[in-house]
Each structure stands twice: as structure tokens, then as C-alpha cells.
Specification:
Layout: E1 2-6, H1 10-21, E2 26-31, H2 35-45, E3 48-50, H3 53-59, E4 64-67, H4 78-82, E5 86-89, H5 97-109, E6 114-116, H6 124-134, E7 141-149, H7 171-187, E8 192-199, E9 209-215, E10 221-227, E11 237-244, E12 247-251, E13 255-260, E14 272-277, H8 278-281, H9 292-307, H10 315-332, H11 349-367
Parallel strand pairs: 1-2, 1-4, 2-3, 4-5, 5-6, 7-10
Antiparallel strand pairs: 7-11, 8-9, 9-10, 11-12, 12-13, 13-14
Helix pairs in contact: 5-10, 7-10
Amino acid sequence: MRAALVGLGKMGLSHFAIINAHPRLSLQAVCDASGYLLDILGQNTGVKTYSDYNELLAKEQLDCIFIATPSSSHASMVAALRRGLKVFCEKPFVLDPAEGYRLADMAESAHLTNQVGYHFRFVATFAEARRLLGLELLGRVHHVRAEAYGPVVLRPAGSSWRSRKTEGGGALFDYACHAIDMLNYLFGVPSAVSGTIFNSVFSEAVDDEIYSNLHYGGGMSGQLAVNWSDESTRKMSLRIHAWGTNGRMSIDRQEMQIYLRKAKPEERLEQGWNTRDTTALTKPVWFYLRGEEYSAQIDNFVECVEQGVTPISTFRTASDTDLVAGMMRADSQTAPTAITVPAGGLASATMRQAVDAPRGLRRMTRWFGTRGEEKA
């Protein structure tokens, strides 16, 4: 398939390597605003280069296009859809969920394959978790929790697209969207959110940490905890926890930890703790860069184009993720419930300790000697 790539940032260059090496893709051209990058790639790879997206579409005969630009420009992909191109777009999809659903409607009505790069859906441990949850391994799931931590912003930094809300920056769209998308993938879209907190640790204009409660049908509850200013982690970590009537499950990229009250012999799962690691679950890929999941998602896109089936991550599922993120931002701006102070006021913890300490010491002395020995 004849492909083009738009956007040559960190993810764009990763996609360049994977697409250029893919046995069923032929990279025809790239597009970016950086003349320096275009010169380097043009001179060393021979690929055609463009600085204007519309010019690329007008001049190149393409089957599909890969978009790896900041989120604020993703809506421009509508031009590719109108030309009948299949589209792979990096996450986060769009800043306005309504725009995302319109793009999903347009792609689906034209029967054009569309995919968004939520690569955690292609991590073997999370895929296995979805399969086992589909078998009701945990019974009725009553609580879930998603955590994503990483050392992205560890000091006040200069301005970039990641530090501007209008460009889709901040931990919400860079980190939390992965956790939200995985919760949606495993448990469905929540019906409501509450108690959302957005904190800026080092950034001035965007959030660095996010905490929120999620509410689902059937009484299931959930929590989200995200912090990209966490120096205790070497790189991004995403972990999902689920509690059910038959046990619990914790999943990250490396392994699955499953505790069962009742064994599941047909799945080779015993009563008590079970562990499955990613090396036993992951299928080999033809090209490795940063992780098998990055090549696997491109494979999925190509196979879906060839077979006419729906990808694992689509414009519509990505719009669901953007919708929940937008719900969280709106919820964070609601006024918190104030604590009503009684007429007598509140004693601080320090005051309470000062009052209670002598009384506690006298009580101990009565029961135990002055040296801590019990009296006869």
C-alpha cells in the first residue's frame, strides 16, 4: 500500500522507521514544518518531502496516510478522508469529542479503515486481561483502578505544544488518555465522573497530575491516578487493577497477577495467586522498535485495510476516550463540597494530641509501672 507520513516528531520518526521497513507498505512521502528534518530525510532516504499537507495530498497517489502531528491539527485529516484514504492517527485523537465523532461518522460511512495509536491495546498482557475478563474470570467486577506514572516533567520548562492546553498538552492528554482508553477497552465507558482533581506541580498552564472517581452501570466504581512528574519511575508505567467477586487482577506491561477464590482449570489458573508474564504471551513481530506493540498496531492497521475489518482502536473508541477526558476536566472545575464547621470550632490534630497525651500517659502508668512493667 502506498503510504505517506505527516509529522516528524518523536512518534513520527518512530512510525517512519516502522512504515519504511514494513513488507506491505511503501512510504511515498513525508510532510513536516521543519525544513531541516525534511532536508535530512530527503538527502539520506530519497523519500519525497513536503512542507504543505494539502500539496502532498494533491500530488501523491496514496492508499493510506499516517498522522503524527499535535492533536489540534488532527481535524485536518478530513481532507484525506474526502480523498478516500485510510487513516492512522496518533493519540490523543482530537480535543473536541464532537469533532472526533464527526470524523468517525465520515470514515465509517465511506467504509474507510481508521485507527488511532493507543498502543497499550496491543500489549499482550492487557489483551489477555480483556480475554479473561470476557470469560467472567473475576465474577462480577465491582471496582477498578488505573494508575499511570512517569518522569516527564520534573522541573519548570519552557513553552512547547505539550505545555499549551490549546495544543492538547498536559498530563490529561499525554498520560491519562492511555489509562482512560485502557479502562474503556477492558470495562466499558463510565457513565459519570466525580471528585476530579487537576494539579500543576511544575507546569504553569497545564496539569501534571490528575485524580478522579469513575462511576459505571451496575454499581461498579473506579479510580484514576496519573502523575507525569514522578521521578521515582524510570519511564511511563501503566497499571490496571480490578476487584471482583471471584478475586482480583493487576496488569502492567510486564506481567499479570491474578488472585482467584475458585480455580479455573481450563485456563490453567489455580486457586490463589497466579502470574503470567509478557514474554510468554507476546507474539514475535517482524520489526522491533521501542516495543512489540508499536509494530503490532501498524500490522493491525494493514491487515484491517486488506481484510476490510474494524481495527482494535478506532476514531470512535478514541473519541470515547476524549469524551471521558473532557468530562474529567469539566468536573475538576466544579466547586468542592465545603465542610460545615460546628459552632464550637475544630480542634487541630496538634491541639488534640497535646490534650490527650498527659491523659494517655497517666492511664499507661496505672496499668504498667513507671518502667513499663505490669503491676501485680
